[in-house]
């Protein structure tokens, strides 16, 4: 069992490595994509600085807290799209019968699919996330926690994308629904949870689990709580297992298009 897991992890890392190498074929374009993503994210620092000049507290958050929130959001988004970019376009593969080439490979179909592409600009998100932490709330313990939580957050984002993307096995033309749900996850990550009340706050920890991606991690970084940390870890494991279950249950309904394209 451990050998199989080790081999699968090795395959994933190789797949990501070659995806990035392919993206770096044109180094100028690659570096521009990374740089412009960092600049795009940095523009929002000015926006929040202006808002905090008008009000010192927004939803119980100060400027440094919101910046670390943005760092977590950028880091989790970036890591998810560097390693598992294809998870976010899963409906297109299902609806148009493009899973054929993955079904004949001697490894996990789901992991083969979601690691088959990468986003070069997402590397800029990861770098930006660490820069934000370094500028606004750096310590060695925070660095370790930040790294842990962007890994867990990336897994949650990916698992959620797989779950909503797998709806395409049952619902025709559900790509718009999947895209909107993924966008909701990303959009809500950049706002303090203190501004949300009642039903919306409940949904952000259940139906759209943004709370476990950035809100709880931020609170743990600011005020460490072991039980809360274990709660985020348990949720990550649970949603990943659910993603595997939903995908493979839906795969039984998959209809091939007889499109066998080679993967290079």
Shape: globular
Distance between the termini: 29 Å
Q: Label the structural class.
A: mainly alpha
Beta-strand fraction estimate: under 5%
Q: Specify the number of helices.
A: 12
Low-confidence stretches: none
* Number of distinct beta strands: 0
CA-atom Rg in angstroms: 19 Å
Major sheet details: none
**Into how many domains do the coordinates divide?**
1
What does the average pLDDT come to? 87
Order of helices and strands: HHHHHHHHHHHH
The percent of residues in helical segments reads over 70%
Structure commentary:
By secondary structure, the chain is an all-alpha fold. It has one domain (2-251). The chain has helices spanning 2-23, 27-54, 63-83, 90-95, 100-103, 109-114, 122-136, 140-165, 175-188, 198-203, 210-222, 226-251. Helix 11 packs antiparallel against helix 12. It is globular and about 55 Å long. It starts with a helix and ends in a 13-residue tail after the last helix. The mean pLDDT is 87.
């Amino acid at each position: 069992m451990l050998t199989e897991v080790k081999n699968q992890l090795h395959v994933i890392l190789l797949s990501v490595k070659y995806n990035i190498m392919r993206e770096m074929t044109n180094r100028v374009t690659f570096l521009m994509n990374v740089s412009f993503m960092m600049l795009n994210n940095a523009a929002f620092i000015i926006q929040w600085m202006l808002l905090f000049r008008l009000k010192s507290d927004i939803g119980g958050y100060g400027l440094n807290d919101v910046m670390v929130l943005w760092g977590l959001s950028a880091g989790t988004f970036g890591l998810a799209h560097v390693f598992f970019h294809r998870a976010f376009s899963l409906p297109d593969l299902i609806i148009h019968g493009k899973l054929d080439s993955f079904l004949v490979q001697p490894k996990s179909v789901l992991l083969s699919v979601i690691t088959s592409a990468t986003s070069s600009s997402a590397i800029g998100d990861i770098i930006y996330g660490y820069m934000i932490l370094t500028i606004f709330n750096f310590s060695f313990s925070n660095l370790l926690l930040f790294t842990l939580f962007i890994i867990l957050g990336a897994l949650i984002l990916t698992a959620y994308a797989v779950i909503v993307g797998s709806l395409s096995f049952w619902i025709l033309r559900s790509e718009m629904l999947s895209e909107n749900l993924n966008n909701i996850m990303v959009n809500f990550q950049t706002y303090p949870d203190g501004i949300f009340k009642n039903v919306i706050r409940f949904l952000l920890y259940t139906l759209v689990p943004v709370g476990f991606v950035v809100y709880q991690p931020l609170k743990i970084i600011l005020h460490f709580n072991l039980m809360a940390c274990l709660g985020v870890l348990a949720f990550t494991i649970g949603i990943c297992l659910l993603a595997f279950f939903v995908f493979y249950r839906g795969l039984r309904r998959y209809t091939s298009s007889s499109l066998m394209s080679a993967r290079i």
